[in-house]
Amino acid sequence: MAITTGNDSEDEVVSAINTTPLVDVMLVLLIIFLITIPVATHTVKVKLPVDRNQPTQTKNGNVVLAVTTDGQAYWNTTPLHSHQELVARLMNVARQQPQPQVQIRGDAKAKYQAVGQLVAACQEAGIQHVDFITEQPKGP
């Protein structure tokens, strides 16, 4: 009771590639990318500052704070012995109108903490403008 269809060669090789799974995977990937790309590129619109690389002139009224490699802080050329001494001096400077510039010169091998303490002291004293003094990079 077998049914014969007239095609008795069961060992025939199918030479066509089934592309349905490939198309399914590609459509899923396309949908995932379409959903995730707007999320990845969404940012808050802000106007970024423009860098002005102008040399700063040290004037007589400016305060120059320096940090050496061992973390010792200096007010112009006078060593500072405590955080309270630095803040007290900076508070006197902050009362002046207009406030003189405070310029921080940190040694290239100084720890960030030592420079950060000077910045924190300036903020604590109410200094409005702090500059960092650096060297120009060597040209090619």
The number of strands is 5
Oligomer state of the chains in this structure: single chain
The CATH topology of the domain at 63-132 corresponds to Nucleotidyltransferase, domain 5
Strand content: 5-15%
Strand order of the largest sheet: 3-2-1-4-5
Q: Structural class per helix/strand content? A: alpha/beta
Q: How would you explain this protein's 3D organization?
A:
By secondary structure, this protein is of the alpha/beta class. The protein has a domain at 63-132: Nucleotidyltransferase, domain 5. It contains 3 helices and 5 strands. The chain has helices spanning 20-41, 83-94, 112-125, and strands at 63-67, 73-75, 78-79, 102-106, 130-132. It has a 5-stranded mixed beta sheet with strand order 3-2-1-4-5, covered by helices on one side. Helix 3 links the parallel strand 4 and strand 5. Helix 2 crosses helix 3. The longest helix has 22 residues, at 20-41.
Which SSEs are present, and which pair or pack?
Blueprint: H1 20-41, E1 63-67, E2 73-75, E3 78-79, H2 83-94, E4 102-106, H3 112-125, E5 130-132
Parallel strand pairs: 1-4, 4-5
Antiparallel strand pairs: 1-2, 2-3
Q: What keywords describe this structure?
A:
140 residues, alpha/beta, Nucleotidyltransferase, domain 5, 5-stranded mixed sheet, 3 helices, 5 strands, 13% strand, membrane
